[in-house]
């Protein structure tokens, strides 16, 4: 593994950071998250339309830049530093790879160029609150999370050559504003039980939900006799594609969390250098230095894991879940220590440290707590399988 970044990768990071500087302060983030869309449309037009972040990892054939997951992850690391709300995660990290992996030639040609240009946003909708399971991050996704032939979940039925969907998805990232929904649904009953993906271009009852992390807007999507288009062909390996996208998404999310943790550490260090108590800066006390040193070690270890996770997606290794577990713990620690070391100021809801703490807690709720991410990775690798001992 070559750990050096290329000139192009460094330029991506510098450009994204420059665009976000001065436009994504804590007040800007709160204001954008409080709008109906949940993000700043002008900033999104810059990130998607001018910088082309939505097409960064898409092939040039479809209007993308033809880069890898690493470049997209580095861009998301910069976005994570300021917690800029945007539909980049739902569109470019979750939905677009599924369209590219499973879509027919006609579907790819129609939808991917619009996503690459920023014209179209998309969201992945899975039944209930099963996003982490559907992506194969916390357990095997070949189970009955999509409905399993029972009542509940999202069911797909075909009549007169038309697919129709019935059910509800409870946690759809940017589902209230997305122009396209990629919906996972169960079909076939018990005899031919399987999970398929469908495209819903408009309609459905979409309700934005109150979320712990307002910078990650989620919606409840109700599908009532909704006409839908099958993504790709019946018989495609949907669960395999979802697991591959889940690993890639975890690596990107890990880099995003590392960016947030690094920024929180920077802000805390800046504060303890100027906050005085007993006639001296509190940063000069050894106890404070030790606490920040521990945070620094966690952030650097998480950064190494996140970068490796992004690099590994091109080489057949799936370590994104482990990288995400490391990064979420680092972010939670950095935000928690930041709140405490800011003292009475840090404990107020208005302080930006709470935005970072909520991001860490919210991502664990959406994509799986760190201990379950690690447990699933260990189980997949069979690290703790019992072995027979000859007596």
UniProtKB/TrEMBL annotation:
Transmembrane segment boundaries: none
Domain spans labelled Acyl-CoA dehydrogenase/oxidase N-terminal: 6-119
Record domain Acyl-CoA dehydrogenase/oxidase C-terminal: where: 251-374
GO MF assignments: oxidoreductase activity
Key words, A-Z: FAD, Flavoprotein, Oxidoreductase
CDD domains: ACAD
UniProt cofactor(s): FAD
SUPFAM superfamilies: Acyl-CoA dehydrogenase C-terminal domain-like (SSF47203), Acyl-CoA dehydrogenase NM domain-like (SSF56645)
Listed EC numbers: 1.-.-.-
Family under the similarity heading: Belongs to the acyl-CoA dehydrogenase family.
Protein known as: Acyl-CoA dehydrogenase family protein
Lineage: Bacteria, Bacillati, Actinomycetota, Actinomycetes, Kitasatosporales
């Amino acid at each position: 593994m070559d750990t050096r970044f290329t000139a192009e990768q460094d330029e991506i990071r510098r450009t994204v950071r420059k665009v976000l500087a001065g436009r994504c302060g804590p007040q800007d983030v709160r204001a954008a998250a409080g709008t109906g869309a949940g993000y700043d449309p002008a900033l999104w037009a810059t990130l998607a339309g001018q910088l082309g972040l939505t097409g960064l990892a898409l092939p040039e054939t479809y209007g993308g830049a033809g880069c890898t997951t690493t470049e997209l992850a580095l861009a998301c690391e910069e976005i994570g530093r300021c917690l800029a709300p945007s539909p980049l995660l739902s569109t470019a990290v979750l939905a677009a790879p599924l369209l590219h992996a499973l879509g027919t030639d006609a579907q790819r040609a129609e939808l991917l160029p619009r996503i690459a240009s920023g014209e179209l946003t998309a969201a992945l909708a899975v039944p209930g609150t099963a996003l982490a399971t559907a992506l194969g991050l916390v357990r095997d996704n070949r189970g009955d999370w999509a409905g399993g032939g029972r009542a509940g979940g999202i069911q797909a039925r075909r009549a007169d050559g038309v697919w129709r969907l019935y059910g509800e998805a409870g946690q759809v990232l940017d589902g209230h504003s997305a122009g396209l929904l990629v919906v996972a649904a169960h079909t076939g009953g018990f005899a031919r039980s399987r999970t398929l993906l469908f495209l819903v271009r408009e309609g459905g009852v979409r309700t934005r939900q109150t979320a712990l992390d307002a910078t990650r807007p989620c919606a409840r999507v109700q599908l009532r006799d909704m006409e839908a288009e099958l993504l790709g062909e019946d018989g495609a390996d949907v669960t395999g594609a979802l697991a591959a996208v889940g690993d890639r998404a975890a690596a990107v999310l890990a880099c995003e969390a590392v960016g947030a943790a690094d920024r929180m550490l920077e802000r805390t260090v800046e504060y303890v250098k100027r906050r005085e108590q007993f006639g001296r800066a509190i940063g000069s006390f050894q106890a404070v230095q030790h606490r920040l040193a521990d945070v620094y070690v966690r952030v650097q270890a998480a950064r190494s894991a996140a970068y490796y996770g992004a690099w590994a997606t091109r080489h057949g290794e799936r370590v994104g879940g482990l990288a995400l577990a490391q990064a979420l713990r680092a972010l939670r620690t950095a935000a928690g220590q930041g709140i405490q070391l800011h003292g009475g100021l840090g404990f107020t809801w208005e302080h930006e440290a709470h935005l970072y703490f909520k991001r860490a807690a919210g991502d664990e709720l959406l994509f799986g707590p760190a201990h379950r991410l690690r447990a699933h990775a260990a189980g997949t690798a069979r690290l703790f399988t019992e072995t027979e001992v000859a007596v």
